[in-house]
Amino acid sequence: MKMRNLQDLLLDQVRDLYDAEKQLVKALPKMAEAASSPQLKRAFEDHLQQTKGHVTRLEEVFKHLSHSPKAKSCKAMEGLVEEGAELIGAKAEPEVRDAGLIAAAQKVEHYEIAGYGCLSAWADQLSLGEVKRLLGETLEEEKQADQLLNQIAESQINVQSASR
Hints:
The protein is mostly helical. The protein has one domain (25-162): Ferritin (Up-down Bundle). The protein contains 5 helices and no strands. It is elongated and about 55 Å long.
């Protein structure tokens, strides 16, 4: 796809995030299963439901951009998901694995926050109000997910893994 203007770039990056979210729909159940902390397991399960909503929301964005939903391979998310898979398979104490899973998940959240932040700003620049609203909703949910992971890490998991 040739990118002639900001709207073309926006569409390209929506396709990238669409693939990223779909990869997460597959990865989050594995992360939840690997988590030993009930609170962390529940956070991953809850975020899986949110992520399914993000996929649906991106499909709405495609409609507003007059394009059918089409993913573009997100290499960055492939790498982040692979890092999470390595942690799942690592020989580690449960609390230590949980700390690693949180780190992997926060890397994902930060990638998504950056992506949705840029897209939201571009939609605003292009006067695409509904697209901006949809992307902004997801951006806020990604920020909340990151904050929850941080809270779980600092109040529980990091303390437990440091005392081993």
